[in-house]
Amino acid sequence: MEVIQDLSQLDGLMQAFANAPEIFQEEEEVAMRETVEEARDHLAAYPPQQHKTRREVYGTPFKSGRQRRFFFAALKSGEIVVPYRRTGELGKSWRTEINSSANAVNSTAQIIGRVFTQLPTAKYVQDA
Fold first, then answer.
1. Exposed/middle/buried for 117, CB within 10 Å: 0-12, 13-18, 19+?
2. Among residues 1, 54, 80, 124, which one has the fewest Cβ atoms lying within 10 Å of its Cβ?
3. Maximum Cα–Cα distance for the chain, whole Å?
4. Could you tell me what percentage of the chain is helix, strand and coil, using 3-state DSSP and rounding each to the nearest 5?
5. Cα dihedral value 46, 47, 51, 52, nearest 10
6. What are the pLDDT digits (tens) for 79-127?
7. Which residues, other chains included, contact 33 with Cβ-Cβ below 8 Å and sequence gap of 6+?
8. What is the pLDDT of residues 10-50, one digit of tens each?
9. How many CB atoms lie within 10 A of CB 17?
């Protein structure tokens, strides 16, 4: 029985496997970047504004005369603006961050993706 082996491509294959960790890390970083950008875009999208009257939302327009007087005084001074106007500030504030670190000892890499906002009022409206 005669066995013929062609090992001419073995060197190229071994080189490809030697470069595999770097190639995989690059691909993982691309996948992480696409993932956090998709999450950011989802968080930044605003739902359509609902147009409801105060009575539809709360029932009785005012609980007391004092509350009614405060409301109209604040409206006149500009402290309260009706209807509420969206600024888009929350949607524009979402950011992404990718951190990667390589461990030379065991040839592993850690890739961490983060979607965040530093807008102080965001936690009352939306959080990720």
1. buried
2. 1
3. 106
4. 50, 15, 40
5. -110
6. 988 777 788 899 999 999 999 887 655 666 788 999 999 999 888 887 5
7. 96, 98, 113
8. 677 677 777 777 778 888 889 999 999 999 999 999 888 88
9. 9
With a CB cutoff of 8 Å and minimum separation 6, the contacts of 44 are 91, 92, 94
pLDDT band for position 5 (cuts 50, 70, 90)? low
Q: What is the full DSSP assignment across 83-94?
A: S-----HHHHH-
Q: How many CB atoms lie within 10 A of CB 94?
A: 22
- The residue written with tokens 């029932």 in the block is 59
Residue carrying the six token digits 């030697």: 18
In contact, 42 and 121? CB cutoff 8 Å: no
Q: Which are the contacts of 98, defined by CB distance < 8 A and separation ≥ 6?
A: 29, 32, 33, 36, 111, 112, 113, 114
**Amino acid identity, residue 2?**
E
Buried (b) or exposed (e) across 35-52, using 16+ Cβ within 10 A?
ebeebbeebbeeeeeeee
